């Protein structure tokens, strides 16, 4: 039996080669959860405690209201922060980090130290 015949016998006509296995990168997952560039600044502010929308906007002066809203929604959808609305006129909304969000503090602190050293 030739080598070609041997390979054909082992793999019938309906043989489909395996596709490469995609292994998700945990860093990529973390960045997806955190979101865009504004997320880091929002998180920095919330590490100091619960904040309202206006407080966040004042402390991150270069962010537009739309970008802040989008960032807060993204972080809420990913379980990083919790939004609490109070039935006042106008409605009072507060944002607080969840335990998942609090766990980011150490990582962002290390990034800050790295930037201070190298940037």
Automatic annotation (TrEMBL):
Keyword flag Transcription regulation: yes
Pfam family, one: HxlR
Taxonomy, superkingdom: Bacteria
Domain HTH hxlR-type: 25-119
Keywords: DNA-binding, Transcription, Transcription regulation
PROSITE patterns: HTH_HXLR
Keyword Cell membrane on entry: no
InterPro entries assigned to the protein according to its UniProt record, in alphabetical order: HTH_HxlR, WH-like_DNA-bd_sf, WH_DNA-bd_sf
PANTHER family named in the record: TRANSCRIPTIONAL REGULATOR, MARR FAMILY (PTHR33204), TRANSCRIPTIONAL REGULATORY PROTEIN (PTHR33204:SF18)
UniProt name for this protein: Helix-turn-helix domain-containing protein
